[in-house]
Amino acid sequence: MHRTLISAAVLALAGLAIQPVMAAPAAAPAAQATTQLPRSARPAHYDVSITPDAARSTFEAKVTITLDVLTPTDSITLNAADLAFRRVTLAAGAGGAPMTATTSVDADAQTATFRFARPIAPGRYRLALDYTGLIGQQAVGLFSLDYDSADGKKRALYTQFENSDARRMIPSWDEPAYKASFTLEAAIPAGQMAVSNMPVAKTTALADGRSLVRFAQTPKMSTYLLFFGLGEFDRVTTKVDGTELGVVTPKGRAAQAAFALDASKSLLVEYNRYFGVHYPLPKLDNIAAPGRSQFFSAMENWGAIFTFEYAILLDPAISTQGDKQIVFVTAAHEMAHQWFGNLVTMQWWDDLWLNEGFASWMESRMSERLHPEWNTRLNAVGVREQAMERDSVATTHPVVQHVETVEQASQAFDDITYLKGESVIRMMENYVGEQAWRNGVRAYMREHAYKNTVSGDLWRQVERAAGKPVIAIAHDFTLQPGVPLIRVASADCVGSSTRVELTQSEFSRDLPDKKPLRWRVPVTLQAAGTSRQVRTLVSNGKASVSVPGCGAVIVNAGQSGYYRTLYAPKHFGALAAGFGSLAPIDQMGLLADSWSLGLAGLQPASDFLALANAATLGADPQVWGKVADVFRTIHDHYAGERQRQQRFDTYALGRLAPVMKQVGWDARAGENATVATLRTGLIQTLSELGDAATIAEARRRYAAQASDPQALPAALRKTVLVVVATRADSAAWEELHRAAKAEKSPMIKDSLYELLAAPADPVLARRAMDLAMTDEPGVTNSAAMLAQVSQRHPDLAFDFALANIAKVNERVDATSRSRFFPRLAAGSSNPATIAKLEAYAGANLAAGSRRDADTAIADIRDRVKVRAERLPAIDAWVSANAK
């Protein structure tokens, strides 16, 4: 599953032999995985027949489950949610006489129990179930999406089963360790296309004009990977390495899939080489769907990846360089899951990071290998920073976490699982070396294909391949939470080398005096002006290492380590003085550490500004992007303090305006992709900081677009619209509203409705939220509009959502609700909001499902502290240094 993160990439190895896996080997002995179901039976195969009625939002279905009863029992319990059973029978073998079951349903536990008149002996049986179910409007279970087309309103059906929603379409053992094969058939209307994990095996005409489409049998897999889609679709295809690749779109939009299809070709070749295990299914589709979810942007169903179209299609009228990169990393992430997650699956949600951390790491690796012109290697720092922000408060959790409930499993899809997981993998690969890491991953794939694993299975293979200690280090970073802090106590030059003394403590934003945990930390060091790196392992809290050269020493050189670095003031001053000569990735790392450590009070908060002052116009565009992002964050911290905010804004504009002048509004022939990304970021930041020239130019281009096609090229359209929308008055808002209602492209229409929720004017923001509670924007846009309002008006959005909680719950995926409300408030700086969040959590969330609410409270407290304790230092620095 993907959350549309553009992360860094690392060089992949290529050209090694491929070992095909064509058939599932015999299953390994079952481990005692966590389960919410009795262990008395286990499925082997599902035969599913479904007849959806999209107009009535219902379906009829039959499923025959071939299962093995493992211990004597008089009942069988499996997962089921919102299903009504008509008839259930059990027969021994292929020809045994059926026994009719009595059915009881536990809605809270999401289970159905079938009891029989006499005990069932161990053996193989066929459980036949005849039932009905519901088609929802949010991305949970089997759901519908309505959208505009040139031929009027259309409706398509899709499924979303991760993490625990296959049970809404198929009564099943809906847990990852219960792998089985599936054969799916569906009765579909004339003129529509059905898509599933496997190719169509047979199509039969029915007497009423419909068709019965039967798909080939799937490999052995977990229930959450099954997919079904139905609608008026186009499909474009190509073939590579013996696999048919396709992109399925709503009719008329296949041309927008060209980049995704080309990317998929390159990615499949690379993945086949890297994993050493050939993709085992005959086809791999990417299904592009209108709408959106607050939970995810894409889902890795085996052979049938589901992706919301904004993350996989490129519309020439509006798509940007950033959109192109999002399409690539989305495809790379989901295709990596075809191995990490689908072929080899975590045993229980405790080890979800084996799926998501690896897919995130592979998307970064493939970006670097296949698109070096994007220079995405530098994004590794941003990935690490986002993980550390979450990991540095008391509400964090280990990468390998304990999951007990469905809601906790849903909440496990967070920054720790994805981004800390990716960052730890990057660090471990750097520690053991690319070749040893790859050999370990290949051995892991070969040994566990079609099976379930835990984290230790991977670490054992990597340690064996590397021939050096891996498991202990990996356990330190995955079995305990938190962020190591490496302090550079001293760095003294003796002769031609520098002796560096390191100590390890812990970085925390809300518990600064806590007793630090201990990690074995792989550290890479390099003296400025040299090319040689030195590696050491900080163990038992300290290390002493000699680094060639007498320049200022960069700790975490190359930024592959998952830790913060705190330099003694003299050492930091030397690095700041030579900032312009550092490698761009180390400039990014130094900026990131100084800013976060400054906010936490571990070094002056103004140290970041000293580095920003040292950045030259020739610095890497991504370095300037980081500076601009932090400037905007500081601006936001001053909200409500207009005089202080304007003083800082004047300084920030003085630093950024020359960069914008150099970049320019219009793209130059042959410019690097990173310049295009910087351009859009600077326009938005300068607008936020109140730069009159930027705002005027955006408005001019917006007004001129009808008469001058060059005024608003696709690469700038979204950015200009954001500036216009955020600065909108009532007349401009109504103009955007009219455009949204008239728009026929679902992707552009969704963007326009989200822009209606962007104004700085709270009156217009309230109008947008009222509009979101109607049917006009489309039910999947409502939550996105509230989330957009919360970016600028968190208290207003949270209060509105609480006042309309029933309506909001109808418009948010069930898997997202326990996170959606707290995240609306998380950007607040108002201490009074904490009590509101606590009251909401107490009334609406189970005790074990409050993690997001507690994290939002921690973020608010941190923001209040920053305003009170850190902004005065920034005030003083700006007064002393601004020109």
Describe the structure.
The protein is an alpha+beta fold and 883 residues long. The radius of gyration is 28 Å and the shape is globular. It is built from 27 helices and 29 strands. Mean pLDDT is 93; it is low at 4-31. Helix 1 crosses helix 2 (321-337), helix 14 (642-663) runs antiparallel to helix 15 (673-688) and helix 24 packs parallel to helix 26.
Describe what is shown at a glance.
By secondary structure, this protein is α+β, with helices and mostly antiparallel strands. 40% of the residues lie in helices and 23% in strands.
Q: How much helix, percentage-wise, in residues?
A: 25-40%
Q: What is the terminal-to-terminal distance?
A: 48 Å
Count of helical regions:
27
| pLDDT averaged residue by residue | 93
Rg calculated over all Cα atoms: 28 Å
Beta fraction: 15-25%
Q: How are the strands ordered across the major sheet?
A: 5-4-8-2-1-11-14-13
Class computed from helices, strands and strand pairing: alpha+beta
Main pleated-sheet profile: 8 strands, mixed
Principal-axes shape call: globular
Number of strands: 29
The low-pLDDT segments are: 4-31
